[in-house]
Amino acid sequence: MLSHLPSIxxxxxxxxxxxxxxILAHNYQRDEVQEIADxxxxxLELSRTASTIDCDLIVFAGVNFMAESASILCPDKTVLxxxxxxxxPMADMIHVDSPRRERKSFPGFHNPPPYIYPKEFTLKxxxxxxPKSPVVAYVNTTADVKADSYICCTxxxxxxxxxxxxxxxxxxxxxRNLSMWAQRNTQKKIIAWDGFCHVHERVRPEDVxxxxxxxxxxxxxxxxxxxxxxxxxxxxxxxxxxxxxFAKASSAKEFIVGTEIGLMYRLKxxxxxxxxxxxxxxxxxxxxxxTTLGSVLRALRENTYIIKVPEEIRIPAKKSLDRMLxxx
Length: 328
Ligand code: 13P
Ligand code: SF4
Description:
Blueprint: H1 8-18, E1 21-26, H2 31-36, E2 39-41, H3 43-52, E3 57-61, H4 64-73, E4 78-81, H5 123-129, E5 135-138, H6 143-147, E6 151-153, H7 158-164, E7 169-173, H8 176-184, E8 189-192, H9 198-201, H10 205-214, E9 219-222, H11 228-231, E10 236-237, H12 240-249, E11 254-258, H13 263-270, E12 275-278, H14 293-302, H15 311-325
Parallel strand pairs: 1-2, 1-3, 3-4, 5-6, 5-7, 7-8, 9-10, 9-11, 11-12
Helix pairs in contact: 1-14, 3-4, 4-15, 12-13
Iron/sulfur cluster binds near residues 88, 90 and 199.
């Protein structure tokens, strides 16, 4: 009956053209959001794309820190985050100079190894304790933490970033699992913050054994936000887009996927002849799933929600991002 009316997809495409907008979507977004996006990628690819893209408006389907990075890199463009409260709990686990929240706010915490820095300390305090060591900030941080750090990294390049620095000791914030993974792959000493991603933290070694028993031919891919004891059991540890490249290049036909299940969409689409199994079906990031096609349409219609990093934070934060982006 109503089939003559434009669909939500058609409305988005029309407005996108009118407003010279580009839709960037993270690999964890809902299938239909990834499908309508101009670029889908991991955090590194999305930062690189945002920094070079020709458009007036960036609609970011992701979480807050990603849209902030786009705003830091593109001050002349309007940057919209499709859902106002799409945040990253891990990014909120570190603050520049006020104590972080109580540990009990973060379910799934387990005893950290001794070199993990105590939770009571702020970034300011840890920097005072190691004044000669640069801070490497995972992009999953707020703009002010980036501004107070020396260089940024993503899950795709943390080892390369650390190796690029002349210092023998570096401070790595906020993901302890990513930091421990990097520690495995560098001779340098890493002082690690004890934040974590609740989606990846919940995976246990038993999940890997169970999945391998169910799919004995499959290779296990794991994101470095998983615990070290899980990563040690994986065949390949890499970022989300690293998994896409690995699955495509591998001669294997089956894969167990140790990251947020949104990645399944591209894995299956780009490799229709291969099979992909979630390491755990509950690896779902509620914040990444907040964005729907309705949020994208509203963003284009109503300019929701503008992300604008103030200049006094943007300029030093951009230096940290630029140092990372300069590495090839
Ligand atoms: P990547 O896509 O960069 O691997 O990041 C994962 C992530 O957790 C983003 O929130
Ligand atoms: Fe943050 Fe984890 Fe969600 Fe990524 S998957 S946005 S790290 S909570």
